[in-house]
Amino acid sequence: MSDTDQSQYDPEAPTADGGSQILRFGWEEWVGLPDLGLPALKCKVDTGARTSSLHAFDIETFGPKNAPKVRFAVHPIPGRDDLVIPCSADIIDRRTVTSSNGESEERYVISSTLVVGHEAWPIELTLTNRLGMASHMLLGREALRDHISIVATDRFCQPELSYDVYHSTSMRKDAPKRALRIAVLSREDNYSTRRLVEEGEKRGHSVEVIDTTRCYMAINSKNPEVHYDGKRLPRYDAVIPRIGASITPYGTAVIRQFETIGTYCVNGSAGITASRDKLHAHQVLSRHRIDMPVTAFANSPKDTRNLIDLVGSAPLIVKLLESTQGKGVVLAETKKAAESVISAFRGLKANFLVQQFVKEAAGEDLRCLVIGNKVVGAMLRTGAEGDFRSNLHQGGTARAARISKAERDAALKAAKAFGLNLAGVDLLRSSEGPKVLEVNSSPGLEGIEKATKRNQVEKLYEEIELRVRPAPVRRRKTAK
């Protein structure tokens, strides 16, 4: 009979309490710690050790002082340094542990559910680096129940597991939710920033607001870092950029540094840079064959009339490349008015676009909020009376909207073109179908949440939690 086929119980052994059967353990067993996302581990059973221990590295505390947490990483398969499982847990104690060679070490103590065969019970674990040891987990006597019988000459008395689970596509889907350490890059104490903190903490995460302009960087090939207020920033599981238009160059440089470190950024630096520059943004939309209002750009004042002719007849829109929230956007009712506006902008040495005016939109546009691969909400924005701009900051109003498949597809395609996982895509309803007006990489959350009466920030955290879960790794012939 193979080890796998052996019964996990010894039916002829006496019971500890008159009711339960004795559970037989060898000196080495397969166990699982599902709370930590570790479904299969080989552990050494050591009755000489009081407390159980788990191999961990990159151990770091976070969270509030009254409820501290610890985050760490685990190599579940000895000799497979390419497989890393990130974990987090509440700290229940800090304990000095003396090893068999007499060395003392202060370790964090956590609690987790131990699964052996068909049984499960809570145990305490200390965290320590066991790299190089044959077993990455040690099961001490405190974790052993009264009805466990140790057979020191045997191995794997309990059902065997397999490391194959770490190569499975279900690895990411089945990973447990863990407390994350998240940074919100923002200079403003506004609705969006407060909601990101509030919702993250409600889900058990630690969320810190970092002023982007107070970050500075150590740029090198071996250990790139981001510093803040005289200290190196800790490793974050995710960064949510809320980069203002006025600091786009520096803000995207900070995000690039986080990307270099390997931190998951909800929106990448390249996507933010491209979406902020309206000329660049329209070129990206054009490259991906995404419908938009006809747009023209020129540098020489000699090209003014030809520039207007490229767009079509008046009325038309003249807008600054760096315009936000409807500022720097002018409607020219006639060709003469357009020439005057263009002349004025050129006199200010400002870069601008000339764009087709979609009359049938009637001062309305659609704001679609895209998170991941879904449009999670949409609102129809209407400009204030007499104003062609529908921006809420310009006095516009908003209400929830139902969108067509064509509008949904256009919004998703636009967000994907910029590589944005959080985007506000503005569409115009034209007689030719939806036209993408703008893609916002730091969309405001107040208007969309109030219009749709839905918790949209919750959707963002669901996406973050999915993205930072461990991914399966390729099998190796040497893995056992």
TrEMBL record:
UniProt keyword annotations, A-Z: ATP-binding, Ligase, Magnesium, Manganese, Metal-binding, Nucleotide-binding, Protein biosynthesis
SUPFAM superfamilies per record: Acid proteases, Glutathione synthetase ATP-binding domain-like
Obligatory cofactor(s): Mg(2+); Mn(2+)
ATP-grasp domain residues: 282-465
GO MF annotation, one: metal ion binding
Gene Ontology terms describing biological process: SOS response; translation
Gene3D superfamilies given in the database record: 3.40.50.20, Acid Proteases, ATP-grasp fold, A domain, ATP-grasp fold, B domain
UniProt xrefs under InterPro entries: Asp_endopeptidase, ATP-grasp, ATP-grasp_RimK-type, ATP_grasp_subdomain_1, Peptidase_aspartic_dom_sf, Rimk_N, Rp_bS6_RimK/Lys_biosynth_LsyX
One Pfam family, short name: Rimk_N
UniProt record similarity statement: In the C-terminal section; belongs to the RimK family.
Protein name: Probable alpha-L-glutamate ligase
Organism: Shimia aestuarii
